[in-house]
User: Fold BHLH domain-containing protein from Acorus gramineus.
Amino acid sequence: MVIKVRRTACQGAISRRRGRRVLRRSLNDLHEELRMLIPGGRRLSSEELLSLTADYIMFLRSKVKVLRAIAMFYMP
Assistant:
């Protein structure tokens, strides 16, 4: 048998705040991790970091294309 417990408005608000806090904390952790991954990311503002991240992703994609082309050239 399942018993449903009704939440009060206060309990719902507390739960939402905890959820936001956990989300904010995890976003901050991801942001710090991104700062460590991107060359020179530690000294940049958030906007600059995200812009540089997009540029870095494009750079890595083009590098993969070039390396694949080189690999295909040397395959028998």
